[in-house]
UniProtKB/TrEMBL annotation:
Occurrences of domain YgjP-like metallopeptidase (ranges): 16-213
Protein's name in the database: YgjP-like metallopeptidase domain-containing protein
Top-level taxonomic group: Bacteria
Organism: Stakelama sediminis
Parts forming coiled coils: none
Length: 224
């Protein structure tokens, strides 16, 4: 990282490329292995107007504050803080209510969403793995920027907790995608055919939804 520009060398890069990550707003300068970093950075810093235009198109930060609305599967919930309510979140009339001190409200919302994501994704993974006739060693969640799920050769499947903010059909199709990797560790025709067989919804529609809307999910819980 140089200043606010992340420098990355890529073995297949043919020229310097400047990009703005839509999930984080990070500025990335990708270089060929032997390119001059100094000259490339001088060029990148001369592109301030272009960077500003790209950042202006980024999704709006959506902090977890009282009164904010958040997607939750196929629903939309309004966040509410009530000092007299229990600290653990509960849903009532399309409102997600947390008690306890106002300080830490944002952290409690994210912890609750992560717990819900783990529960739903574990359940869906178990159900779809049974349909596919495969086993899954472990399910875990994280907050990666580059992918919605991953499946290791050891049978561990890891998901982004932010899938709980997507429509349930999108979450479910993503689970089917990762479970199918327990049979095919590639993205060939056999893999896609299996995903279609074990998914409750159209995987192509789910992928298209994530391409259009996925970046915005990474801005929930952020203040800037």
């Amino acid at each position: 990282m140089t200043g606010d520009i992340e420098v990355v060398r890529h073995p297949r890069a043919r020229r310097a490329k400047l990009s703005v990550d839509p999930t984080s707003g990070a500025i990335r300068l990708t270089l060929p292995p032997r390119a001059s970093e100094r000259r490339a950075l001088e060029w990148a810093k001369s592109q301030r107007d272009w960077i500003a235009r790209q950042r202006a198109t980024l999704p709006t930060a959506r902090p977890f504050v009282p009164g904010a609305s958040i997607p939750f599967g196929d629903a939309v919930l309004t966040l509410e803080w009530m000092a007299s309510a229990p600290r653990a979140g509960r849903i009532a009339n399309e409102t997600l209510i947390f008690g306890g001190p106002r300080d830490g409200f944002e952290r409690r919302v994210e912890r609750w969403l992560r717990a819900q994501a783990f529960s739903v994704l574990t359940g869906e993974t178990t159900r779809i793995a049974e349909r596919a006739g495969v086993s899954v060693a472990r399910v875990s969640i994280g907050d990666p920027h580059g992918r919605w799920g991953s499946c290791s050769s050891s049978g561990t499947i890891r998901y982004s907790w932010r899938l709980i903010l997507a429509p349930h059909s999108v979450l479910q199709a993503t689970v089917a995608h990762e479970v199918a990797h327990r049979v095919h560790m590639h993205h060939g025709p056999d893999f896609h055919a299996l995903v279609g067989q074990i998914s409750d919804s159209d995987p192509k529609i789910a992928r298209a939804w994530l391409r259009r809307n996925g970046a915005a999910l990474h801005w929930f819980g952020r203040s800037n």
